[in-house]
Structure formats: C-alpha cells, structure tokens
UniProtKB/TrEMBL annotation:
The record marks 232 as: Important for substrate specificity. GO terms for molecular function: 6-phosphofructokinase activity; ATP binding; metal ion binding. Catalyzes the phosphorylation of D-fructose 6-phosphate to fructose 1,6-bisphosphate by ATP, the first committing step of glycolysis. PANTHER family: ATP-DEPENDENT 6-PHOSPHOFRUCTOKINASE 1. Its cofactor is Mg(2+). Mg(2+) binds at residue 231. It is found in: Cytoplasm. Keywords: Allosteric enzyme, ATP-binding, Cytoplasm, Glycolysis, Kinase, Magnesium, Metal-binding, Nucleotide-binding, Transferase. Allosterically activated by AMP. This is ATP-dependent 6-phosphofructokinase. It comes from Rubroshorea leprosula.
C-alpha cells in the first residue's frame, strides 16, 4: 500500500506531529509516543492525549506544613525577588507549587511513581512583609565544619534577597532562648565567620524546654526560627512547630540538618561531610608515613561515626593507603580464621606495614564486654561510647608481643576533634549556601515545620518527621561497601552461612538508638 509522506517542512512542525489524521496514517506503534509526553529541543512540553495512562498512579507527595493550614486568613504579598537585580536575568525566578523532587530515581518500567517532596526555592507569593520579620538563628549539638557558613548565608539571604534587617542570634543552643542570650546579626557582623571553625553562636547539648522556648519566641515577637542541628535537634524543632501551631502563632520554623557523621535520613549527605573526609586524609597519610618507615608498623586511625561509618568508609576509599576499615554496621572479630589478627599478620608479612581505620562506634559490644562498663549517657541522651581506639591498640599489642612474640611498632592517631573544628572546604561552603538560601525561601513562603536538603541532587523541603524517623547507616548489601572491600581486600568478617541482614540488625541493636535532643 502506498503511503503519502508529507514534505519535511510539514514533519518538523509540532502542531502537525500531533494531528490525529497524520498519526493514524503513519501507524506509529512506538510505546514512547503512547506512554510519554514529547519534549521538543527547546524543552517545551508538547501537549498530547494518551490512552489508558494513569498519570498519578503510585504518586505520593510528602507535604510540608504551611502557616495557612492553621491561619487560613493570613495575607500574602508579592515576592520582593521580583525586583531583585540578582534574579533579573533568571529565566524562571519562582518555583512552581507543582514542582516536586522524586525520592527514588532508579525505577523499573512498571514501578509506581513513588515518594516526592516539594522542590525548594523562592515562591511567587510570600507571607511575611520584610519590615515585619524578626528572625532568629540557633545552633545545637556538636561541632561540624560549615555551621558558620550556614549562619552567614541565612543572615545575608534574609537581608540581601528579602530586605530583612531584624535578625537575632540565640547563643548557647536551645537553652539560650530562655537564658536571654542573644546578639544582633547583620551582614557586616557575619561577614567573615565562614573562615572560622566551630559556631559563632556557640552551642550546647540538651536544654530543650518546648514551653519556655515558645514563650520566649512569643515574648520577643520572633516570627521566623532557623534551627541548625542533628536529628535530635530537629525533633526538638518539630515540637516547637507543634506548640507554635497549637497557640496559633504566625511563626515559621525551619530546620537545617547538621551532622558530621552523615547519618541523617532522606537527604543525599549532610554539610561538613566532604570537609571531614578530606581532612581525614591527613591523619591517614600521617599514619601511613609512620608505619611505612619502621619494621612491622601498624597504624590505627580513629574517625567519627557513632552509628554510621560513612566518614571511615569514604576516607578509606579516597586514601588507598588503608588496609582495613572497621565501622559500626559491620561486626568484626579478632581471633580465629579470617579474623583481624590473622589479616594483620598476613599484611605485615606481605607489605611490612598495615593501616587500619576504625569508626568510633565500631566494636562497642567487644569493648563493653572487656571493660564491664555501665551504660552512661550525655546531656542529649546519647549513650556515651567507649573508646575503641586505645582498646583495639592494646589488644593488637598484646596479641603480637605476648602471644605471637612478634615485634611490632604501633602508632595510634585520633584526629576527631581536629576534624570537627576546621572551617568547611569550598564544596561544603557552596552546599551550605544552598541550604541556607533554601531555608530562607521556604520560611518567607510560609512553610513551617520543615527541613531542607538535597534529594537526588535537587534541594527539597522535607517534613521534619522524615529525617528523624531513622538513622542513615551504611548498607552492607549495597555496592559502596563492596567497593571498599574490593579496594582494601580485607575480610568481610562474615561466614558463608550468616545472613548479612540478621547480623546488621543485631549489631545495630547493641548500640542504643539516639534519643532526645542533640
């Protein structure tokens, strides 16, 4: 049968491509046309009708609270960014309410669309007048590279983008709210604090009293609260938001997740993590130089990682000088076939030296059994970890000098506080800027009870409950841990008949879950 083919100029007109008569005449059967919208070279979506397609099948939106949920008559205003020189040349200044970020991007053909989050960024309408905003910033929990950068960029973002000039810094963590410790923050005050480590506002653990904190927020006339801290701190932020909602206060509560261990769920990674991995290289390199320079040198480097071994794992992969990496998620044993002692002895015979990286939370069950330690907790409610570094060093010394009669030179390095105290590197500085500006855009747009972070490299607004419901840990069944094992060629410390999932579950139960407010 002869088929009349239209001329090329006709074919390349989008409006003609979708003409039903033409589609029928060409008898297209490709599922691409039947299932997916067509995209032109200019990325403009071409409208089409699809048969038997359920667009919303399996779509789940993790919504975040908004002030209008409990204050329906709250007025909105045009976003000042409409007149901003910085955004004048931006093609699309404002994020659409329908823009979402997918939690899972690797899917199969018949997979449901899955969980999505609101994309972060400026909205066309804001729910605060710039001259009526009184914002405050508080930092809680342990130190981490990048805290000062986040503080700086929240202040500069509020001032430069939205014209907000009334910004307070709450000193000393949560208890600073009711201890009356505050200072006025301006772009000039915070201009160079990103060059320093620690937190310009000082910090503390514990001290969370929801009623006192919200009373103080109300008394001071604060209507935007920016809370920088770990998962415990974010749980405290959720309680503050709930109390604010209960009292019907027009106060936006925004969280910026902070943990050097990278153990916060949902987000790609936490700020300060890249800096920590980079700085850990110095300690690993020092250990390698030391043990390479002596006979039978054994270097042990202890890194951060209370419940999650991400820093130890990534630092090991980045270094290539590490022979064995021990993390909380993977149990290990010292003696017997394929045990740590046997591996160390083999590497000493092969290379004359060995470097071991151990996360602070690794092997806690062994240390506890050996030292008959009682369970103590810090002010935040976290279990005080026993020091795996000196314990492991002594065990290795005893085994090789007393049992094996093999002379060794052991060097132990603990750089944890040095790493925590340094300023953030270039990568983390950029990341902290994006986090801070996303938080500012969200609060000005009236969102509350949310936290910010990248999900598959796209910044999103996430309900606080989602980032506090579980701890992000290294999955031994994922490829990244397999890459490490292939790189170090260390034993997996699993026998062939053991279930990885069962072991990791047992190990995780041995270390108390984090609780209260850090």
């Amino acid at each position: 049968m002869d088929l009349a083919i239209p001329s090329p100029p006709f074919l390349f007109k989008p409006q003609n491509l979708l003409r039903p008569s033409l589609l029928h005449s060409l008898n297209f059967e490709s599922r691409v046309f039947a299932k997916k919208p067509l995209i032109s070279r200019q990325n403009s979506r071409i409208r089409a009708q699809f048969l038997d397609q359920k667009v919303d099948e399996g779509f789940v939106l993790e919504d975040v609270p908004h002030l209008t949920n409990f204050l329906p008559d709250l007025p909105s205003y045009p976003n000042p960014l409409q007149k901003s020189q910085a955004y004048a040349i931006v093609k699309k200044t404002f994020v659409s309410p329908e823009d979402v970020v997918a939690k899972t991007i690797v899917v199969q053909k018949d997979s449901p669309r899955g969980v999505h989050f609101h994309r972060a960024g400026p909205r066309e309408k804001v729910y605060f007048k710039s001259d009526e905003v009184r914002a405050c910033i508080v930092t809680c929990g342990g130190l981490c590279p990048g805290i000062n950068t986040v503080i700086r960029e929240i202040v500069c973002g509020l001032n430069y983008m939205y014209g907000v000039s009334d910004i307070l810094g709450i000193e000393g963590g949560y208890r600073g709210f009711y201890s009356k410790n505050t200072l006025t923050l301006t772009p000039k005050v915070v201009n160079d604090i990103h060059k320093r480590g620690g937190t310009f506002l000082r910090t503390s653990r514990g001290g969370h009293d929801t009623q006192k904190i919200v009373d103080n927020i109300q008394d001071r006339g604060i209507n935007q609260v920016y809370i920088i801290g770990g998962d415990g701190t974010q749980r405290g932020a959720a309680l503050i938001y709930k109390e604010v909602e209960k009292r019907g206060l027009p106060v936006a509560v925004a969280g910026v997740p902070k943990t050097i261990d990278n153990d916060i769920a949902v987000i790609d990674k936490s700020f300060g993590f890249d800096t920590a991995v980079e700085e850990a290289q110095r300690a690993i390199n020092a250990a390698h130089v030391e043990v390479e320079s002596v006979e039978n040198g054994i270097g042990i480097v202890k890194l951060m990682g209370r419940y999650s071994g991400f820093i130890a794992m990534f630092a090991t992969l980045a270094s290539r000088d590490v022979d064995c990496c021990l993390i909380p998620e993977s149990p290990f044993y010292l003696e017997g076939r394929d045990g740590l002692f046997e591996f160390i002895e083999l590497r000493l015979k092969e290379n004359g030296h060995v470097v071991i990286v151990v996360a602070e939370g690794a092997g806690q069950e062994y240390v506890a059994q050996s030292m008959l330690a009682s369970e103590r907790k810090d002010e935040s409610g976290n279990r005080l970890l026993l020091d795996i570094g000196p314990w492991l060093s002594q065990k290795i010394k005893d085994h090789f000098t007393e049992d094996n009669k093999m002379p060794i030179n052991l060097k132990y390095i603990d750089p944890t506080y040095m790493i925590r105290a340094i300023p953030s590197n270039a990568s983390d500085n950029i990341y902290c800027t994006l986090l801070a500006q996303s938080a500012v855009h969200g609060a000005m747009a009236g969102y509350t009870g949310f936290t910010v972070g990248p999900v598959n490299s796209r910044h999103a607004y996430i309900p606080i409950a989602r980032v506090t419901e579980r701890t992000n840990t290294v999955k031994l069944t994922d490829r990244m841990w397999a890459r490490l094992l292939a790189s170090t060629n260390q034993p997996s410390f699993f026998s062939s008949d053991e279930s990885v999932q069962e072991v990791t579950g047992e190990t995780f139960d041995m270390i108390n879950n984090k609780s209260t407010f850090t």
